[in-house]
Amino acid sequence: MDKRKRTMGKRFQKYLPFVILAVMLIWHSVLYAQQQRFPRPEFEGGYSFPTHQFLNQRGPMWEYMDVAVLIGALLVTAWMVLIKRSRQGLIWVSVFSLAYFGFYRQGCICAIGSVQNVSMALFNGNYAIPLSALLFFTIPLLFALFFGRVFCAGVCPLGAIQELTGFRQVRMPKSIERLLGMIPFVYLGLAVLFASTESQFLICRYDPFVGIFRIDAPYTMVIFGSLLLLVGIFVNRPYCRYLCPYGVLQNIFSRFSVKHVTISPAECRKCRLCESGCPYDAILQSDPEPYVEVPKKSLKNSLIYFLMIPLLASGFAVILYNLAPSLSVVNNNVKLAREIRLEREKGIKAVSKAAIAFFESGKTEDELYKEELQIIGRFKKGAPWVGIFFGLSLGIGFFRLTVRNFRTEYVPDRGRCYSCAKCFKFCPVKVKT
Amino acid sequence: MESKNKSRASRRDFVKTAGKIIAAVPVLSLPIVLTKKTDVKGYVWQIDPYKCTSCELCTTSCVMTPSAVKCTNAFPMCGYCDFCPGFLCQGAKIYSTAAEDQLCPTGAIIRNFVEEPYFEYTINESLCNGCSKCVKGCRDFGNGSLYLQIMHNLCVNCNQCRIARMCPSDAVIRVPAEEPYIRKELKQSTSPVIGKALVKPVPSRGYLLRHGKGKQLT
Fold first, then answer.
1. Taking CB atoms and an 8 Å limit, are A214 and B211 in contact across chains?
2. Is the pTM for the entire model greater than 0.95?
């Protein structure tokens, strides 16, 4: 009896490794069985699985159709503004763009949002930008370099909806106009920073009119969009002037445009009729004769402002660098890490859905914290550059105030002019064709 | 005076041409810089069913109302159970199609008798709002054959998907437009140990990211 027991034990020892091996091999099937708890039925009546139709989008090739429409609309707008000089024609182009890019394509794809795709592709090795997005970014800028802001004039659906609803013209005081005009620079800088750190697409998130195009949006955005449209009835194009981040780029590029729209079809007679014709305050007045020489004092002034440019740039770079950790909260992972750390300190169980999902996923907290540090590091790398951009644009803006160009005729400010052709009707000079 | 004005004008011209070149160079070079990083075919958003934790945020996060996210049933995985944990709510006394016994808040799941004892469950997509209550039931107590997918006939393909931003488990990812669905499927196993069905392993989703590997985009 005793001997038999011993042999049993020996035999068990002998087979133990095989048992463990078998358990290890079968263990996987147990894991799978968690998903496949019930056996597949064996149907007798010749049942076949119903086929499910997975429908596709309208096909990626159609996006190139959008690009073609974009180029066509840009060409027509440029022709309407520069050669035909017809406001009526421009309105029809706006109606078309609003219908196609706005209501048919539902506001996506748009050049304004493509800024983020480009910056994300530039600063992330693992993101492949769709070619159509890249084209939507570059083509309007190239057109701005040749013909001024024709994209804003009649192709951008956001511009078109505001252009068509701007019935009255209330001119803003210059100081307020300038002050609010700084917002787009901040918006652009932050949007690029957030996109390049893979945190958020700020511009798409706060697109005010996309909800109107889709007739479906969070109610806050609908209110925001309709408020902008209401304001836009009096203060024309509020989004373009005080928010649009792509407008900043258009503004910069349009300043160097080869051929820009002129107020008068021929020589300006300085009749001053167009002076109050621009709702965007983008008409630069002609200098009255006699022209005064630049005094020494203003020369000194402009030199001071010129030297202030690098000072402002470095100052903003330092400020933004220090703001980087607080800015990084827009990243979901950073937010989650802070939440979980706080909950750990206070001894609270996971509350938000993100925290619950995190604990379900089996990721360790150390990994998350490491990721948080990494993202903050990326913010710290990018934020000073955004600061430099802020400082440079502010400094150059100040400097330009001190430089006075001598003008012999009324001309549009190439940066701020939307080529909307509203000033044409004020000019008494007519050219017979 | 005349000559001074002339020189000023020429200086301004110089600044303008310089500005033109400075502005043109980055725009023209951008496509060249990004050639290796451009994707001609484009991408769409899709839910990775293996990462989804069925948190119900898809219902409200989508910019479309009702959500473009719908439930689908992977029939080869389905157990065709009489007591379907995705169809019947907990505590249902009778296995019936009565509204009070159904888990689905919109009654989007259709239960059809196939043969004893099997029932077929199909989804009426026009009623489904993507709340994933059934997905949770099927995952926790059943075979996990019900799963969520973004239906691309409804999705407007936002630049950044709003669900992707809200998703707590980062399950909404960019996938190539030619292959817009991530289907849950069963594969007949060749493994002698298991002999039965195997869940198809998740294919690697690195294809969007043509360069560098690993990290997924949210």
1. no
2. no
